[in-house]
């Protein structure tokens, strides 16, 4: 087996036993537990499984689709059967994107370990493969799909069918023998995907038409890629890293293959590698950052009948989300529950949500997580909530100001590393805690305005809502004490806030209210957000869990722009794009002109700000895709020019659709990134699917230039 993924399989007992296959139980609920036969295919890439009795129906998934393996009772489904099957026999496969988990119980602890370790090894092999190897692997997979009669050859009919699948038109006279062998197929594919576009660039810089000498490559890096720094050193590194031919390496030169490999690599991609890790100052007040935030985190689908699940929290936190929402209601047996009130969405226990947040809060980012609590509970169950927060989170829960003194401003993400902050209503303010003003009574009253106010704004059954709004809500002192830097308050006006509001007070707006404020008083809104946190969430009318455009809220400096993480589309693409920088840590520093109280920036009239310097972004697009859609390397050149007034805030989204004149175009892929993270010159954009996962090897080849507007 010359397959790279199968390297080292001979000596690996775990992989050997996976190739033989194992019977395990697939668990969907306490009552749905069925035996399935699982087996690793010869390609070391596909897992195949079927039920013992059913006819020939079987299912498969690719190792590349698996994002993580959780051992033991680490999903709701497995927790629900914990009394029946011990943890050492259980594991969960978590898939990329929005596909559901696969919960499995092996016959023995040894068999479970064998699958857990084997899967981890396969995933590691896959991650260590280079671009060229992935391409060869991918081509081989297509060959297997197309070789219907499994004779290791492709007859003419199979080739034609395959090319139809891949959107390539082929005439009868291409093939002499009428069939192709596996290796010939790889060559045939490479012939189809000759990169004319890249070749043209290569030929401009090569002195001898065969290769780039080190100085040719340096010219290319300086003139096209606009690189600074030690270019000589970088050219050497690139040859060392990407040139496949040893002969060329000895000559310090790069062949066309090496040039292709470099341009297809992370360094040749559009995203600047220097902005991938945490590179921003994390020591500024919380209000100076955009914070990745989720709305109705417990929902997996729509807002009326959807499934509530602890999995929603795990998924959001694992995507770098730093603010999750918890809607709490009185439940049976004195235990508070979480669900979308007054709807048919299913219910989960508050304590299970807190446990999941405690376990997953800091797996992908060490910076603080905000629990945005919407509290509809009685005082008794609020006390239970406070107990759960204290017991389950322990030291992770922020219980008092950082230095124990009366604070004068918000702390920074750096100061709050590893801490979970509760955002909710509070009796009195922070100051009283320090001058002994809070009475010792066990409850207090706060005015009750939550999403009911939003419903009122949308004119639904107005009278009953009005009556609810006037009520006072009783708050338990224990729960109130869990709130330190994020006290939820009602908004009156920017003027009122400027005079009276405290830095730890947080206002929430529906998207429509926020839009109204940013149109009518943009500069005031930005100023307000320079010292206080603001949360914006989708209107109640979005019962399908759709998202609004978060960009206009970020433009006004709103930090906590809460989106439905469970819903793919433009809104989440922008969110993933903004937070793909700075180590995906969930915090991105705002530009300076939005942080300083005395500067006036109005997102509606960006031309009026101090030091206004627009730029022109020129993108030459060359569409190259060996994906199944637009056929092979259709190269078309198109130059797009944009004038960008506020480059520091701009996001750029590339979307590829398959044009269909009879119906809506098919979405092929997209890629979104902040303008500030773009590299200039010739770059590849590796497209992502609807779910934000990669779809190899589909890419756009572009040339990027920024020029200042004279």
UniProtKB/TrEMBL annotation:
Names of the cofactor(s) = Ca(2+)
Catalytic activity reported? a 1,2-diacyl-sn-glycero-3-phospho-(1D-myo-inositol-4,5-bisphosphate) + H2O = 1D-myo-inositol 1,4,5-trisphosphate + a 1,2-diacyl-sn-glycerol + H(+); a 1,2-diacyl-sn-glycero-3-phospho-(1D-myo-inositol) + H2O = 1D-myo-inositol 1-phosphate + a 1,2-diacyl-sn-glycerol + H(+)
Q: What is this protein called?
A: Phosphoinositide phospholipase C
Q: Where is the PI-PLC Y-box domain?
A: 479-595
Localization terms from the record = Cytoplasm; Endoplasmic reticulum; Membrane; Nucleus
Which InterPro entries does the record match to this protein?
C2_dom, C2_domain_sf, EF-hand-dom_pair, EF_Hand_1_Ca_BS, EF_hand_dom, PH-like_dom_sf, PH_domain, PI-PLC_fam
Broad enzyme group: hydrolase
Instruction: Give start and end of each C2 domain.
Output: 559-689
Top-rank taxon, per record: Eukaryota
């Amino acid at each position: 087996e010359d397959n790279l993924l199968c390297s080292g399989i001979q000596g690996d007992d775990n992989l050997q036993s996976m190739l033989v296959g194992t019977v395990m139980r697939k668990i969907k609920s306490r009552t749905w537990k069925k035996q399935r036969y699982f087996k690793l295919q010869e390609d070391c890439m596909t897992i195949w499984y079927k039920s013992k009795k059913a006819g020939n129906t079987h299912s498969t998934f690719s190792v590349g689709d698996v994002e993580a393996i959780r051992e033991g009772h680490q999903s709701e489904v497995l927790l629900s059967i914990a009394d029946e099957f011990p943890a050492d026999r259980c594991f969960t496969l978590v898939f990329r994107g929005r596909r559901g988990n696969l919960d499995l119980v092996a016959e023995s602890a040894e068999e479970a370990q064998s699958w857990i370790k084997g899967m981890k090894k396969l995933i590691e092999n896959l991650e260590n493969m280079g671009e060229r190897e992935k391409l060869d692997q991918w081509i081989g997979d297509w060959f297997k799909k197309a070789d219907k009669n499994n004779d290791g050859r492709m007859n003419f009919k199979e080739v034609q069918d395959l090319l139809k699948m891949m959107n390539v038109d082929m005439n009868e006279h291409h093939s002499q023998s009428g069939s192709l062998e596996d290796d010939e197929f790889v060559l045939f594919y490479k012939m189809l995907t000759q990169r004319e576009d890249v070749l043209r660039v290569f030929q401009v810089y090569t002195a001898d038409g065969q290769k780039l000498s080190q100085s040719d490559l340096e010219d290319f890096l300086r003139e096209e890629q606009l690189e600074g720094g030690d270019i000589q050193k970088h050219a050497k590194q690139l040859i060392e890293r990407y040139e496949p031919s040893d002969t060329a390496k000895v000559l310090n030169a790069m062949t066309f293959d090496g040039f292709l490999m470099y341009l297809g690599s992370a360094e040749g991609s559009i995203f600047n590698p220097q902005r991938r890790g945490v590179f921003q100052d994390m020591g500024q007040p919380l209000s100076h950052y955009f914070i990745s935030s989720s709305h109705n985190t417990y929902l997996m689908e729509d807002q009326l009948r959807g499934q509530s699940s602890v999995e929603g929290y795990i998924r959001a936190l694992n995507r770098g989300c730093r603010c999750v929402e918890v809607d709490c209601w009185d439940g049976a047996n004195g235990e508070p529950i979480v669900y979308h009130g007054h709807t048919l969405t299913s219910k989960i226990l508050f304590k299970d949500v807190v446990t999941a947040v405690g376990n997953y809060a800091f797996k992908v980012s060490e910076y603080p997580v905000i629990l945005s609590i919407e509290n509809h509970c009685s005082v008794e169950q609020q006390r239970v909530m406070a107990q759960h927060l204290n017991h389950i989170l322990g030291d992770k829960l922020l219980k008092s100001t950082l230095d124990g003194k009366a604070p004068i401003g918000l702390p920074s993400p750096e100061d709050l590393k590893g801490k979970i902050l509760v955002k909710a209503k509070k009796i009195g303010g922070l100051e009283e805690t320090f001058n002994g003003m809070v009475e010792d009574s066990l409850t207090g009253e706060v005015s009750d305005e939550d999403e009911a106010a939003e419903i009122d704004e949308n004119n639904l059954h107005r009278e009953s809502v009005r009556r609810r709004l006037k009520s006072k809500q009783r708050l338990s002192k224990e729960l109130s004490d869990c709130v330190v830097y994020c006290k939820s308050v009602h908004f009156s006006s920017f003027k009122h806030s400027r005079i009276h509001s405290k830095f730890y007070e947080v206002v929430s707006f529906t998207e429509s209210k926020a839009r109204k404020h940013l149109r009518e008083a943009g500069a005031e809104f930005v100023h307000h957000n320079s010292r206080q946190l603001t949360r914006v969430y989708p209107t109640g009318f979005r019962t399908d869990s759709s998202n609004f455009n978060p960009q206009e809220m970020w433009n006004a400096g709103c930090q906590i722009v809460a989106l439905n993480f469970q819903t793919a589309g433009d809104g989440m693409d922008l969110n993933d794009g903004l937070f793909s920088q700075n180590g995906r840590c969930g915090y991105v520093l705002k530009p300076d002109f939005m942080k300083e109280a005395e500067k006036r920036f109005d997102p509606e009239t960006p031309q009026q700000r101090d030091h206004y310097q627009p730029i022109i972004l020129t993108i030459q697009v060359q569409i190259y895709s060996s994906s199944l859609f637009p056929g092979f390397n259709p190269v078309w050149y198109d130059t797009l020019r944009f004038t960008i007034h506020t480059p520091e805030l701009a996001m750029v989204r590339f979307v590829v659709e398959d044009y269909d004149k009879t119906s809506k175009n098919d979405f092929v892929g997209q890629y979104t990134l902040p303008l500030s993270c773009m590299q200039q010159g010739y770059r590849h954009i590796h497209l992502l699917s609807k779910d934000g996962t990669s779809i190899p090897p589909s890419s756009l080849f572009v040339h990027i230039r920024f020029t200042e507007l004279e």
